[in-house]
Structure formats: C-alpha cells, structure tokens
Amino acid sequence: MxxxxxxxxxxxxxxxxILRGDKTETQILSSEISSxxxxxxxxxxxxxxxxxxTHSLTLRPLIEQALQxxxxxxxxxxxxxxxxxxxxxxxxxxxxxxxxxxALAAGKxxxxxxxxxxxxxxxxxxxxxxxxxxxxxxxxxGHTMLLHTRAFDDYALVGKTRDDAAGEAFDKVAxxxxxxxxxxxxxxxxxxxGDPTAYAFPRSRxxxxxxxxxxxxxxxxxxxxxxxxxxxxxxxxxxxxPDICASFQQSVIxxxxxxxxxxxxxxxxxxxxxxxxxxxxxxxxxxxxxxxxAANKTLLVCSPTLSTDNAAMIAYIxxxxxxxxxxxxxxxxxxxxxxxxxxVLRK
Length: 347
Ligand code: KG4
Ligand code: ZN
Known about the structure:
alpha/beta, Nucleotidyltransferase, domain 5, 11 helices, about 20% strand, binds 5'-O-[(R)-(carboxyoxy)(hydroxy)phosphoryl]adenosine
C-alpha cells in the first residue's frame, strides 16, 4: 500500500486529499475542499485574480487539516501530485508549485496530473475492482466528452462538444433566468417543480458525427423563448422559471444519454461511467441508469462529493502513476489548455 497527497487548484475550489491504495483498492484517508463559490457568486462567475489569491491563503492550513484528518505525518507520504491543467493559469500555479516544493523538500517523487483524467477515473475511486475498460461520459463546466478507456493511460476520444460544455450551458441558462452561480444545481432545484414537456427545446444532432454534442442552439432557443414570453425586457415571472428549467434540463439529459448509449453499443462496451460536476444531477443519473438497465449495461457513478472538483481524484491518478513510476520532473510546468493524451477514434 502506498500513500499519496495531491492538490487541486484549477478553478475555484482549493482541495487537498490523501489516499492509501494499490492497483485495485483505494482508501480516502482525507479529502478537504475549501470552496470559493460564495466569494465569486456576486460576480456571476469565477474571477481569476480573486481565485488565485484565495488559493494561496487557503492552501497551507488545508494541507495541515488533510494530514491531521488522515492521521498521517509528512514522512508517511510516498508521492506528491497536483493538477497541471486544464484550468486558470494563476490558480493552477499555486497548487502545482506547492506540491512540487513539498516533494522536493521531502525527497519524494512528483506527478503532474491532468484534471480531466482525474474526472475520468473518479468513478473507480470507491470500487474494489481497480480500473476496468469502460465508455465514459465526462460532463463538467468546461468539458463534455465521451471516451473509451481501455486501461489506465489508454484512452480514445469518441465524441466531444462542438461548442458549450453541458455545465457551461446550465450556467449560462441560469444566468439568463437570473439564478445564482453556479447554475447547474439551481436549475436542477427549479426543474423539480416544472414540466419537462412544457417547451419543445431542440435535441441537436451533428451531421456525420453521431457521438458529438452541441448545446449552443439549445441555449439560443431558451433565449428566444424568454423574449417571446416577455417581449419588453426578457424578464419572465418567477412562476415561469420551473417549466423552462425542466424542459431545458430534459433536453440536455436526452442528448447526453442517447449519445452515450449509442457509443457504448457501437463499441460493445458493457460498462458505462459518468463523471464531472454535472453528474451530480440526479435526473441525469436516474435517466442514464434506466437506459443502461434497458440496454443491459452497468453504470458506475461516484458519490456527488467526488463528482465536482476535488483532490481525491487527483491523488488517485497520482497513486496509479506512482505505482507505474510515471513521474514528472520538477521543472515541468502547468498548462491551462492541457489536453488529455488520447487516441482520436474520430475527429
Ligand atoms: O467538474 P466541475 O466541478 O468543474 C469543472 O471542472 O468544470 O463542474 C462544474 C459544473 C458547473 O457548470 C455546474 O453548474 C455543474 O457542474 N453542476 C451541475 C450540477 N452540479 C454542478 N449541473 C447540473 N446539475 C447539477 N446538480
Ligand atoms: Zn472539474
């Protein structure tokens, strides 16, 4: 069993986690998250300068808290890791530099981690099986992707969004409706009170790209609906919000579930995983679960605290790279546009 400590600071959450595990089993010894959501809410989105300043203030006490809650000393850590990208440059730099400094001081190896690989494999964190081949749907604030995972570090891109990510669409539609940031949970809450068939929003399809997504047309359709409902200023009444949220959410879910099942079927993949912040959405989980049962497939989703940004998923990749001795040098840098190393099955 090896122990890893990792830092996640790609956006507006400062997170530190300590894991103990081997190739098949992992135990989360601690997973601390200091959210900055309240700080950024009044600006309607993340302010990079404010985020990095807050990361630098929060990180040190959070590391101490993680060590204390895990009941381990610094000498017990076998390998350090941190998110190198994608994300905000000034935020990434704080966690990445801190983890490198800790590794250097302790004379232990360092692993530079791709945030998306963290999301991708997060569903396996709570299993006792290790990483199994699967078709993965990642739905976060910045990405919407379908990936075929054959094994650790062996990924093929199956489909992706051509414009907005699913979470971004949730956030933008929430903003149009005057709901607070981040919009995903707000839309889900309002949607529970609404009728998903009230508005016939589009389910966009891309010609000759059956596994790709597009959400910009849907966003525009919501905007037109708002101006139709209230031609003067686009301000609709509070009573109209639930039906719009429910219909919008249903449209996103229908598209995500349909494409995912289609891809799993064509790749003959019996296991489907769901990850990223939008996977907190209970309707998405339920709809995908029912579709998987109907198609005789198994769905693996992690608990909501591991679905949104966290450091446990980064410590998990750190552990698997450490077990394979895939270390990074201490002069490696962050990359705000870091891409996942994938084989592209199709453009
Ligand atoms: O993975 P994540 O925490 O951060 C990124 O790497 O982007 O995802 C954040 C995204 C935001 O767009 C947020 O609105 C969305 O996940 N989200 C949700 C829900 N909870 C978070 N979207 C829909 N329903 C939710 N319950
Ligand atoms: Zn994320």
